[in-house]
TrEMBL record:
Protein name, UniProt field: Phosphopantetheine adenylyltransferase
Keywords: ATP-binding, Coenzyme A biosynthesis, Cytoplasm, Magnesium, Nucleotide-binding, Nucleotidyltransferase, Transferase
GO biological process per UniProt: coenzyme A biosynthetic process
Keyword Disulfide bond: no
Length: 163
């Protein structure tokens, strides 16, 4: 039974993230999407909101579950008896940070392996940051996020506008 952990901020989940989740779900017995609680203050969505959006968007994938974690990723991976960490790699610009993080995690715990997966090329420009910016400026994000996330973004922005 191979369990992999896919950690991230997911503020919010994009179709690029979802593409990586779908690919991982085909390869491994169990995929835990782990939402990092850190950065809560700067995030648009709270950790529970991010978790719910991912749960709704992955409801058709029976071997995928969603959790919230805090503290060191390597400790969380051990707690969950995870075999590896999955990270998405979009472009060369992601590489430096990902390389640093993978090797740092390995130096913290030699047993924690990091595997990189490339999302579909048409998602290689996609990021949560850009999705939030486009939505905030009234642009259409339908091609970049699931209907659940689009609705949550609209709700959040309407709420912000009312305050
Ligand atoms: O989606 P992100 O923001 O690129 O995800 C980064 C994340 C949450 C995977 C990373 O910051 C992380 O693992 N945080 C947990 C704390 C930790 O273990 N830090 C040391 C990493 S070398």
């Amino acid at each position: 039974m191979k369990t992999v952990i896919y950690p991230g901020s997911f503020d919010p989940l994009t179709n690029g993230h979802l593409d990586v989740i779908q690919r991982a779900a085909r390869l491994f017995d169990r995929v835990i999407v782990a939402v990092a609680r850190k950065g809560e203050k700067q995030a648009l969505f709270g950790p529970a909101e991010r978790k719910t959006m991912i749960e709704h968007s992955t409801a058709n994938l029976s071997n995928v579950s969603v959790d919230i974690f805090e503290g060191l990723l390597v400790e969380y991976v051990e707690q969950q008896s995870g075999h590896a960490v999955i990270r998405g790699l979009r472009a060369l610009s992601d590489f430096e940070f990902e390389f640093q993080m993978a090797l740092m995690n390995r130096s913290l715990n030699e047993k924690v392996e990091t595997l990189f997966m490339m999302p579909r090329a048409s998602y290689s420009f996609l990021s949560s940051h850009l999705v939030k910016e486009i939505a905030t400026l009234g642009g259409d994000v339908s091609a970049f996020v699931t209907p659940e996330v689009k609705e949550a973004l609209a709700g959040k922005l309407a709420q912000a506008g009312a305050n």
